[in-house]
Amino acid sequence: MKRYDLIVVGAGPAGLSAAIEAARCGMKVAVFDENAKPGGQLFKQIHKFFGSKEHQAKIRGYKIGETLLAEADEAGVEVFLNATVAGIYLDKEVLVQIGEAMTHFKADTIIISTGAAENMVTFDGWTLPGVIGAGAAQTMMNLHGIKPGQRVLMLGSGNVGLVVSFQLMQAGCEVVALVDAAPRIGGYGVHAAKIARCGVPFYLSHTITKADGTDCVTGVTIAEFDEHFAPIPGTQKHFDVDTICLAVGLSPMSQLLKMAGCTMVDDPKRGGQVPLVSENGETSIPGLFAAGDVSGIEEASSAMIGGRMSGLAAAAYLGFLSESDKEKRLADLEVALNSLHQGMFAPGSKGKTVAKTDEGIAVSQSLLKKGYLEDTDLERFVHRSNQTDKNSGIHPVIECTQNIPCNPCQDACTKGCIKVGKTITALPQIDDASSCTGCGMCIAACSGQAIFLVDEDYAPGFASITLPYEFLPLPQKGEQGTALSRSGQPLGIAEIIDVRNAKAFDHTPLVTIKVPAGQAMTARFYQPTTQAMEQ
Amino acid sequence: MKSINDRSRNIGSFVSQLDDTIIICRCEEITKGEIRQAIHDGMFTVNEIRRYLRAGMGLCQGQTCGKLVKYLIARELGVIPDQLDPATSRSPMRPVEMKVLGNEEVTHV
Q1: pLDDT at A63
Q2: Second-level CATH architecture of A2-117+250-340
Q3: Which of residues 54-73 of B touch A (CB under 8 A)?
Q4: Are the C-beta atoms of residues A272 and A266 closer than 8 Å to each other?
Q5: pTM for this predicted structure
Q6: What confidence score (pLDDT) does residue A534 get?
Q7: At the N or C end, where does chain A have fewer CB atoms within 10 A?
Q8: Can you spell out the DSSP letters for A10-33?
Q9: How confident is the model at residue A393 (pLDDT cuts 50, 70, 90)?
Q10: Strands A237-239 vs A219-224: parallel, antiparallel or unpaired
Q11: What residues in chain A have their Cβ under 8 A from chain B's Cβ atoms?
């Protein structure tokens, strides 16, 4: 039986982070993962992450995965792939299926970071081929380069549903609608706005009543429902689709912890059956830890911090790290974790209605119900005195209206034009004293794609708008297409006057369009002519 | 004994529903109606449903239907899902072929 100081189950963001910290303290560490590739969900995450510099904000998920793997390798962590942990027994003995054999391992500490599984909902036809989890759609697109379908309906407007919908469109699928049973969009407003300006409608307080088809999905019917969850007659809507994507939450895969004998609790706020853990992730069994989604559904950034905390706590438990060093390092990580746990989407405020931002501005109801800011919202957010008074010359317009933990825009501007301040959930402010050079770094740094550069005086009667455009094919300079509003409505002809794709933009090309001056504050997206003709 | 496990409790008689033919456990092809009938037959816990119908005993080991079955039981018994005991977790966590399970490296420390 092979022995280790620490066995980690699951090579996702939490598990790898834990293994790296423990190995750096001098521990002999093994990581088991049942998948053929390490990284958990990280390599599917092609979007830029939120947070602050210390949380690796504005870095794309798969890049973070690559960094973690390199760090694990350097620290001497042994990663076993295609290694399925089948059981966990008394005195930290672990049974692993590797290839065609069952092998026993033993460790003095164990960290379980097995992540979560997707929830399902049932409706007439839900077992038809073509009904898939949002995670499955992401795996097909981003790991295997396969389009899940041509026309897709997404159920669930949390961040997973929103992010995957956008990625489906990037892959060339048509997303016909986003449906959610809740009366409000669950995820970040900036994610919703990216989809809304492509013209995708949101149907809230709606659910799927039927998937059509005999051998595979050929259509779907949704309906609005009343307070007793009964469909309201006459509200049915039908869509011709070949794919129905479900993004209706995650459940922790905590069975190993339960099997080990940890005290478990059923906590709907954390996603279901979770272990009772200390702030460092230690369970009721000394030396056995849980990190990441398995101990409560959150996201990758907090999973990585939680993993590092568990790794350090495990090292201290075995004496590889002094108590004082542990306390010091954990305190730093706690600060980083707390900063992610602030704002309107903090784990504690799940399901709560927030009427005002921390700045005291009434939140946009339109953003919560339709996925985009109404022109009336602009008065409160975009035209507020600390946003900008300017209406001439090139300047940034920041449509970031919810308190979310994110601040890369602040560091992106070398002129010091954008300020978020110490609290990373604060809404960004624009310093009028600093002059904008139009470099576009802020647009590319904004993980929510909510920054635009506007020049009302581009030419007599015309304004220019520079916007993030993460779609292929890239438009060409001189080409003409359609300017779309925040709700995806066509406004008129837009001419491409510049396309920039610098390395520093990290795959977020910047497209500058020329529109009539009156559309400077309404045009927010560009649709090529070919695409408009197809629809 | 938890009061929700009290079998003498009257939960009313089985009334068929329009969507009883919907499959809940895909691996073992168990329908909503079969699970609701089993609850009325006296199966009040997730473990009992598993043993009685094999729902959650297939290839995915209840990963997909676990929560769905739990919610069905809760609704039929008129309790909150969190009050129900989850299914037992035991090795092997994932389906393992018998020839592999028997191919165990046995060394003594």
Answers
A1: 94
A2: 3-Layer(bba) Sandwich (3.50)
A3: 63-68
A4: yes
A5: 0.95
A6: 59
A7: C
A8: --SHHHHHHHHHHHHTT--EEEE-
A9: confident
A10: antiparallel
A11: 1, 34, 84-89, 95, 97, 100-104, 106, 117, 119-120, 122-124, 126-127, 251, 253, 255-256, 258-259, 264, 266-268, 272-273
